[in-house]
Amino acid sequence: MRTADLDQLYEALGKVIAQADFSALSFRAARIGHIEATPGIGLAGIALDPSPAVLDFQARLIDAAGPFTEPGGTAAAYVTDAAEPGISQPTLDYIEHDIPDHSGANYLAHITAGLAKMSDLAAIEAEPIDDFTVHPAAVAVYHLGNNGTARAQLKT
Predict the structure, then answer these.
(1) How far is CA 21 from CA 50, 52, 135, in A?
(2) Which residue of 25, 30, 77, 85 has the lowest C-beta tally within 10 Å?
(3) What pLDDT is attached to residue 132?
(4) Measuring CA to CA, which residue among 32, 60, 46 is closest to residue 112?
């Protein structure tokens, strides 16, 4: 995504959002899971099972954003702060393949819970969770940071 194209992207996404029935969009909390953030550290989250309406909405957003996306993003495209050594290679790899690998039937909806040692995550993930339903109240576009985290809200 090029910064110069953001207004056009917002317009394209706005058309999809205006047609959405937010009352039909829901997720069911299912389990705790993780991805490896850096060696030995996992980014933990509550995995959410999306409703069919969510998957349809997602597909329409991806189609609308398609003309404004391109492969080969570099670390310069991400938000960092002085405490970070830079954007990790796992972050670059994950985001590069996020849409083809994690949308539709492979969508990994989640609520980020935080970082933990990989050795602790097995115990955390073995514990059952009380399921609950999540309903989105809004849609936002974020500038991403390490681990694909939403670091700076650009538009809501």
Answers:
(1) 15, 12, 11
(2) 85
(3) 93
(4) 46
Mark the ranges of the chain whose per-residue pLDDT is less than 70. Answer: 1
Beta bridge partners of 116: 42
- CA 54 to CA 43: how far, in whole Å? 24
Nearest-5° angle of CA 88, CA 27, CA 135?
A: 100
The β-bridge partners of 45 are 33, 112
Burial 71-81 (b: 16+ CB within 10 A, else e): eeeeeeebeee
Q: Which two tokens stand for residue 124?
A: 């955390």
Rounded CA gap, 50 and 27, in Å?
Answer: 4
Domain-wise residue ranges, the chain: 3-155
Instruction: Check: CB of residue 87 under 8 Å from CB of residue 75.
Output: yes
pLDDT of residue 1: 61
- Measuring CA to CA, which residue among 31, 30, 35, 32 is closest to residue 118? 35
Q: What pLDDT is attached to residue 2? A: 76
Locate tokens 């500038």: which residue? Answer: 143
Please classify residue 128 by burial: count the beta carbons closer than 10 Å to its beta carbon, then call 0-12 exposed, 13-18 middle and 19+ buried. exposed
